[in-house]
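fyi for ur records
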Amino acid sequence: MASQRDIRRRIASVQNTRKITKAMEMVAAARLRRAQQRIESTRPYADNMLEFIGGMARYLQADVSMSPLVREHPEVNTVTIIPVTADRGMCGAFNSNVVRQAVDRYRQYESEGKNIHLVPVGRKGISTLRFQGFELHNTYADITERSAFLDAQALAYRVSGRYSNGETDRVHIIYNQFKSAVEQNLVDLVILPIQEELAVEFSPQGASEYMDFMFEPSERAILEELLPSYVEISIYRAFLESLAGEQGARMTAMRNASDAANEMIDDLTLAMNRVRQASITNEILEVVAGADALSG
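which gave:
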């Protein structure tokens, strides 16, 4: 049985750990509020962008498939997979869920004989995939709320160029979509080629009739500018969703760790009281035995 001193040391150690988890929970909660405000303001922009592109395609009766970003390649030989993870851990299964889905998607295409390019985002995804022996085609790390849009632009420009040049035939992005502090939805989305049915789904009601507008520059030139912007905002939204989900997952994980520390402290305190009581009982028995010996 452990001594009172050993149990006190364990209690002090768990109390110090609880202080750390409490502090991390408060920091994550503060960051979550900012990240949540940012993603909630970005979602309407992304949805309206998609709706606007759909409306343009319907109003103009334009052949959207003429764009290289919408046109599907005859054969899918090379696939790019972009798993979006965090740069840090201590957030439960947040990172492992994304990596697991990316590996499953990788194995699926590998079994079909496809060539796969892994482009992980976030240090946790990079280190895990490297440790598992995967070859990484490119990596992105240290993405913050301030740099997210520029990083999204750079990544969108790269994958759009590779898709247009035929260097890749399909692009997946895998990320955690923020729903609440305790829930994130895993999303596996094909962002290239841009799905034509999205334009139909998001087009406004009553837009089936052709409307006579004059455009400068041409209709095709406008769509060629909008479609790359759609890829950019899709990746940017994935980054912001992931950043908000990371803080929510970390806050929840640290709260659970603090609760577990409280339970451990209670159990250790109870064990220490039992040891103390046993020690006192032994001392009383020794005194009584000594008194009996003297009286005898």
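The longest helix spans residues 219-295. thats all i got for now
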